[in-house]
Amino acid sequence: MWPYRVVASGPYPGISLVVSPLVNGLLADALGRWRENRDRPRTYLSTFWGGALFAFGMAGVRFWLMGAADRRPGGRPGGCSAPPDAPIS
């Protein structure tokens, strides 16, 4: 992770706290079903709730860290807040 935004924030801050867990939960559940169909045990992370909680935690930490980056001196809220000394190309 970078300590600054790589892409400017979109019109709905925090949307990743909803979308990311849903998508990751569905993909994790599909992986779990695939494993079960091949007579392999299903891990906790390969369930809908396991994948969704993992993604929610990651999105929450990312949201929190990017909010902290916007509040620091020199941070540019809502925009691409690359380090002030970064070269412009």
What does this structure look like?
- There is one protein chain.
- The chain has a domain at 16-71.
- The chain contains 2 helices and no strands.
- The protein has 89 residues and is mainly α.
- Helix content is 52%, strand content 0%.
- Helix 1 (16-37) runs antiparallel to helix 2 (48-71).
In short:
Helix content is 52%, strand content 0%.
Keywords:
single chain; 89 residues; mainly alpha; 2 helices; 0% strand; elongated
Topology:
Elements lengths: L15 H22 L10 H24 L18
Q: How large is the share of residues in beta strands?
A: under 5%
**Secondary-structure element series:** HH
Percent of residues in helical segments? Answer: 40-55%
Main structural class = mainly alpha
Biggest sheet overview: none
